[in-house]
Amino acid sequence: MKKIELSAEEYRQLSDFITDWLDDKHDLQIGQFEAEFFLDELVKKMAPALYNKGLDDALAVAQSNMLTLEELLDLEKIVD
Known about the structure:
The chain is mostly helical. It contains two helices and no strands. Helix 1 (8-26) packs across helix 2 (32-75). The longest helix is centred in the C-terminal third of the chain and has 44 residues, at 32-75.
């Protein structure tokens, strides 16, 4: 799996979300550095699992579509 890279804007938004969420939900104030460090760790640990789940879901959809296509092609066979 290639390394997950966030755009600067996505990175900033997620870092801000972490800071705001911890403050709102847990009354815990952290700085930008701590939020970014936490985000880096989350991405490192969670990205592979989420990426693999996305691949599994995409594969299931592709297999389902392939079965549907096979069924449609079977219906269009010409019988002599």
